Amino acid sequence: MNYHDNRWVYFRVGGIFCSLLCFGTPGDALADAEDTLNFLAGATYRQEDNLYRLPSGMAPLPVLGKDTKADQVRISYVGIKFDRTYSLQRFQLDATATNYRYHTFGRLNFDAHDLSGKWLWRITPKFSGSISVERQQTQINLADNRNFAGAGTRTIENRRFNADWWVHGSWHFLGGASEYLQRNSQSFVAEDSFRYRAKEGGVRYVAESGSSVTLLKRNGHGEYLDRTLNAASLLDIGFDQSETELNLVWLLSGKSTLNGRLTRVDRKHEHFASRDYHGTTGKIDYTWLPTGKLKINVAATRDIASYQELGNSYYINTSLVFSPVWQMSGKVSLRARLEKAQRDFYGPVVPVTFTRHDQTRSALIGLDWTATRAFSLGASLQHDTRSSNNANLEYKANTASVTAQLIF
Q1: Distance in angstroms (rounded) separating the CA atoms of residues 10 and 8
Q2: Which of 12, 18, 241, 361 is the most exposed place for a label (fewest CB within 10 A)?
């Protein structure tokens, strides 16, 4: 879909902002975010000083075809939100069409169509669950995908079925099935397109306070799409994965909550055992509300993910995030986010002189103004850095953005 095919998006968003300029900020009567049906439209202007995340010493002209690393990105979107309860059933739908337009690197332009639908079903007060479908289109991370020729986008589809049977007292039996599909618009072997189907079952204990402990066992099979068995590069066509997961929700008090997840992951490939990996992942998330206007969140995470090159098969990512939000007034809030992450790569399938180790740091500060229930503005500044034992992968980048949104 090209620019002219999407003129209706720009006309609609443009009309909305013209109305704002002519008639002022919309009042509460224009929309109510709690309505069953809402329409939304918005726009974001983003300034990037190092769009492709190039190292400081690398000249952009030979690799990008331009004498600059900077760009301005204009993002516009329209969407619909539906949330309605019928008796014991609840239905939710979010659908959004988004245009991404780059001023300098127009080859990155793309249109995204995102969808999220969920049926929260309930047969009896003790037997309930959900059926959900999600579809999301994004740009492949430019910091890792070094294909400078054009736009590489990724479509992710996630379908899930979950059931919860409240057996007796505090005990619940759980079951579910899911399908996860990742498809790249261009070849990106390290994170190739694949489909993964899984089944899970487990048990949950819910205390009277609302705190809970959940134990799940999950088994699945994945297959790589558009890939043939490659003995030279040891690229497989499928894998089996098993997970044992423990989840904790602990309501410490009326002002603090601790969420935890601990998962044991074991992935085995069909033909090349050198690509296999296993390990422990987890997350600890603590939220504290010291006052009615201040919210503080701290999260520590450890993840394992496939990343298939000759020098590595997977990586382990550990991160620490600190993100406070200060509600300065009923309409204005100040937010910040500090993150430090370490990514270590393992599982080379050929002899290597060193294995890759990256460290990233990110700092963000943002200001949000909710003028009415229908209209909001936001602005943010962000600074990102990556250091690595591969100098070609290091970068520094600054991003500034302004966003406006209307809800009808």
Answers
A1: 5
A2: 18
**How many other CB atoms sit within 10 Å of the CB of residue 104?**
17
pLDDT digits (tens, 9 = 90+) for 227-240: 999 999 999 999 99
Domain layout of the chain by residue ranges:
4-280+346-407
Q: Please check whether residue 393 is in contact with residue 358, taking contact to mean a CB–CB distance below 8 angstroms.
A: yes
Cβ burial of 306 (10 Å; 0-12, 13-18, 19+) is buried
CA 393 and chain centroid, separation: 22
Distances (CA, A) of 217 to 172, 244, 281, 303, 404: 15, 5, 14, 18, 43
- The alpha carbon torsion through 339, 294, 335, 42 (nearest 10 deg) reads 130
Query: pLDDT tens across 282-299, in order?
Result: 999 999 999 999 999 999
Q: Are 72 and 104 in contact (CB under 8 A)?
A: yes
pTM, 2 dp: 0.87
SS3 content of the chain, % helix, strand, coil (to 5): 10, 65, 25
Cβ atoms < 10 Å from Cβ of 348: 16
Instruction: State both tokens at 397.
Output: 């980048």
User: Is residue 236 within 8 Å of 222, Cβ to Cβ?
Assistant: no
* DSSP codes, 358-373: EEEEEEEEEEEEE-SS
Q: Is residue 395 helix, strand or coil?
A: strand
166 Cβ contact partners less than 8 Å away, ≥ 6 residues apart: 125, 126, 127, 172
| pLDDT value at residue 16 | 38
What is the structure's pLDDT at 19? 42
Quote the CA–CA distance of 345 and 166 in Å, as a whole number: 42
What integer pLDDT is reported at residue 31 of this predicted model? Answer: 58
